[in-house]
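Lay summary. Proteins are chains of building blocks that fold into shapes, and those shapes determine what they do. In this project we predict the shape from the chain. Here is one chain we studied, written as its sequence of building blocks.
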Amino acid sequence: MCAQTETLDTEPDRGASPIRLDDLTKRYGEVTANDTVSFEVGAGEIFGYLGPNGAGKTTTIRLLLGLIKPTSGSAEVLGADIRDRRALTDVKADIGYLPDSLGFEERLTGRQVLDYFARMRGDERREELLELFRPPLDKRVETYSHGNKRMLGIVQAFMHDPDLAILDEPTSGLDPLKQDRMHAFLEAERDAGKTIFFSSHVLSEVQRVCDRVGIIRNGELVALEEIDDLLKRGGKRVRVQLAAPVDESAFVTSEMINVEIIDATVRFTYTGKPAELLEYLVQFAVEDVDISDPQLDDIFKHYYGDDPPAGAG
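And here is the predicted shape, written in a compact code that computers can read:
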């Protein structure tokens, strides 16, 4: 059993990485929700924390915010040790948090909710954000749709102009137009020097806005890479249209994975060099060939396959 320290009496190191995890572990009985997770998030980057529901994403976020205590390991947020309640409280004024499950008082109006958070942290950017996201402020939260609650949550997370934003599934419930608006907003925040950490199971949004990505599976970090590097490592998506059907054993090489053959059309992911593939294909009656970059969906399958995730959060 790991002894937890409530107050370590240490001053946050504001020159450190905004987020740093060192073998961070959280267990619930026999279930390990986070298993020795280690990584850093640099200042001024958008970091995507990717994994299906139940992989351990929300557990990591709750640990970083001091909402739950680690079983072992450590982490720092804006230089504050998450095990030091006083230090973490001191830096929370510079953190914006959007939880996956919004716990607003249902009987209050949206305006009253924002007034409440403004009294605690400030709201110098409230009007700017309301122009972008526009929740119905004069209606009670209990009447809100899921998307309207999400927009209210986005405004409260950013209206005090935090240096670091920690967002759990930020676009959940938003329509495509609002999703695009949110993505553009996050990119502008990054360009202004803010640090964004967000969890998601939506691969397309991670690929669009993130500088780096961490992939978590069953509580373990299985990849930590630049988006471009991850895509390159995933090989190339290839579609070959042949003049006539071909026997799979005569066509497929060891560099071809996820092969699908339908009549005279062959689709696969190619892990070798594209030039070598083109040299190989000249021996077949090829009518057309298309080579493109992989999507994160394809790479994600390499880590997860069709197995359902285990773990918590």
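What the prediction tells us: The radius of gyration is 23 Å.
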